[in-house]
Design goal:
With 115 residues, this protein is α+β, with helices and mostly antiparallel strands. It folds into two domains: 2-62, no CATH class; 66-106. 18% of the residues lie in helices and 47% in strands. It contains two helices and eleven strands. The protein has a five-stranded antiparallel sheet with strand order 3-11-7-5-4, with helices on one face. Strands 1-2-6 form a three-stranded mixed sheet, with no helix packed on it. The chain has a three-stranded antiparallel sheet with strand order 9-8-10, with helices on one face. The chain is elongated, with a radius of gyration of 18 Å.
């Protein structure tokens, strides 16, 4: 996503979205910055961006956290993830070559643009 911020009296009033995709990953840092500046809101499983020419809405399909690379099951912590991998996927090679342990930590909100 490529944005242009608009300021009034040193405060961000809104943004213009120059480029975006239908499937978007918002990092936790980006979300925190947008909320602090006031042009980004999160509520009820959605993200709203106060943008020109219209407000953009994204539905959150996956939150930051620890996930199984095999079945995308969410875990509370790494020890639970390791137990799951040992119990359910023992002897299989991880489908994600970047995460050979079989689980991954996502530090972003995976979202889909609403029409």
């Amino acid at each position: 996503m490529v944005l242009k911020r608009y300021y009034t009296n040193g405060q961000v009033t809104h943004v213009k979205v120059l480029y975006s995709k239908d499937m978007q990953k918002f990092s936790m840092r980006f979300v925190r910055m947008g909320i602090e500046q006031g042009w980004f809101k999160m509520r009820d499983g959605e993200i709203a961006i106060n943008a020109e020419p219209r407000r953009m809405i994204y539905k959150i399909v996956r939150n930051p956290g620890i996930y199984c690379c095999y079945c995308n099951l969410a875990f509370a912590d790494g020890s639970v993830a390791r137990s799951h991998i040992t119990g359910c996927h023992e002897g299989h090679i991880s489908p994600d070559t970047n995460n050979p342990s079989g689980y991954r930590y996502d530090n972003f909100y995976q979202c889909v643009k609403e029409p």
